[in-house]
Amino acid sequence: MNANLFAQLFDGLEDPARLAIETEDGGRISYGDLMSRAGRVANVLVARGVKIEDRVAAQTEKSVAALVLYLATVRIGAVYLPLNTAYTLNELDYFITDAEPSLVVCDPAKRDGIAAIAAKVGAAVETLGADGEGSLTEASAAAAPAFETVKRAGGDLAAILYTSGTTGRSKGAMLTHDNLASNSKTLVDYWHFTDKDVLIHALPIYHTHGLFVASNVTLFARASMIFLPKLDPERIITLMARATVLMGVPTFYTRMLRSERLTREATGHMRLFISGSAPLLADTHREWAARTGHAVLERYGMTETNMNTSNPYEGVRLPGSVGPALPGVDARVVDAVSGVELPRGEIGMIEVKGPNVFKGYWRLPEKTNAEFRHDGYFITGDLGTIDDNGYVSILGRGKDLVITGGFNVYPKEVESEIDALPGVLESAVIGVPHADLGEGVTAIVVREQGADCSEATVLGALEGQIAKFKMPKRVMFVDELPRNTMGKVQKNLLRETYANLYAK
Length: 504
Ligand code: AMP
Fold this sequence. Notes:
The chain has helices spanning 5-10, 31-47, 64-75, 89-99, 111-120, 135-141, 177-190, 208-221, 233-239, 250-257, 282-292, 365-371, 411-419, 455-462, 491-497; strands at 19-23, 28-30, 55-59, 79-82, 103-106, 124-127, 157-162, 172-176, 198-201, 224-227, 245-248, 272-275, 297-302, 306-310, 330-334, 348-353, 360-361, 378-386, 392-397, 402-404, 407-409, 424-434, 438-447, 474-478. By secondary structure, it is of the alpha/beta class. Among the domains are: 5-152, Rossmann fold (3-Layer(aba) Sandwich), CATH 3.40.50; 401-498, ANL, C-terminal domain (GMP Synthetase, Chain A, domain 3, 2-Layer Sandwich). It has an eight-stranded mixed beta sheet. Strands 4-3-5-6 form a four-stranded parallel beta sheet, with helices on both faces. The radius of gyration is 23 Å and the shape is globular. The model has no long low-confidence stretch (mean pLDDT 96). Adenosine monophosphate binds at residues 163-164, 208, 276-279, 298, 300-303, 322, 380, 382, 394, 397, 486. The site of adenosine monophosphate (AMP) has 18 residues, from strand 13, strand 18 and strand 19. Residues 16-362 form the AMP-dependent synthetase/ligase domain.
């Protein structure tokens, strides 16, 4: 058997005419079209000298052609390396010189700047624009659609995705054909995907969520997806009338809740709403359920591991929890220092093991060793708990833990209390350098529209609710929290902004 992810997806395709992707400009791409388009691009890549295990780096706007480039790269046994479209030339310089691709594909408008960087590592450059224009498309129009998928073993590399790098330099997570295929197949079963499903796909495709979870799961299920260039809450609500599943980051849900068009009727055709990549507030979960009758299914994953846990399809979807470990995945909570497993309910480091977990960091064997335990568990860097029913709850990244006067403060514990106060929309709790305490607990709060809560009212309300050492030293108000495109609050930016808050 050929373990190449492309072969796993497309070999023995029963019905080439089946719809795979719809686009907003009326495009309808069948599974057979995807195969032949991937065949043409595969022939172009090989003609450009891309060999097995070579990296193909792509900084391209979301489009069917960009997805085809991913499929074609995997098909020829090369390694796909998607890059966030927001990265500047300065950032691209790091990724390209680190990964040493043999080909870089970019937007025609960026060609000149990227060509100068690509030249440093001897990489060729092709262009691909948002509407499919560019040299790659021109070349593939003239190429043959047939291509024999290159044989690969399950443990061979299919992709490298760089981590978002909020603490130091980004690292390239090496993902194998089996990492990707096994996780997608598990999710198809676990989330009850079938060929009747229509997924609203409004996520970017340079990140694990939109590229692997959304696209691979849809393709394995022989379902179809509607490609939207980006989050457009009103458009998504309109599409719900003929779709069945939405995958989003929490921002999708909070933004749609602002629309009066979000009703039980509007969501009546949908069977599943999934959220991940950042914590979904328990309040958002409840509000969504009250408005639509649907309990959002929250799951937890990361670039290095694909998906680890998920609330169940049938059974309790617990607000504030990311559910039990997926079938085939083991999750445990350990003491971060000793690595000893902790009793259920205790807070510690979340570790995972399974066929979903990546092979290591690109060209960083020491870093890889440091992040794995001897028994094969990967140290996620997330702190959390597992309850008696196996449900995992995340309390935040270990690096976001606040240590004040020698005490550990888990930001989420304080954030949950603040978020529940009248007039508060959301909050982020961070540690800021403090001469006496090491770090001072600091709350950054977003008020609800028109609310007038103040530092004094927040502190007054917390008094007696949480231990004294967890009390914020200061409460600062902002209009909104800084978030990246995947909806994650960028606490590193907040720490920078308030770095001198307690300076004398
Ligand atoms: P990334 O590698 O960009 O996908 O980021 C992975 C990180 O996002 C995880 O290590 C978690 O800290 C966070 N994350 C992902 N899903 C969730 C979730 N459902 N709830 C809370 N944090 C999450």
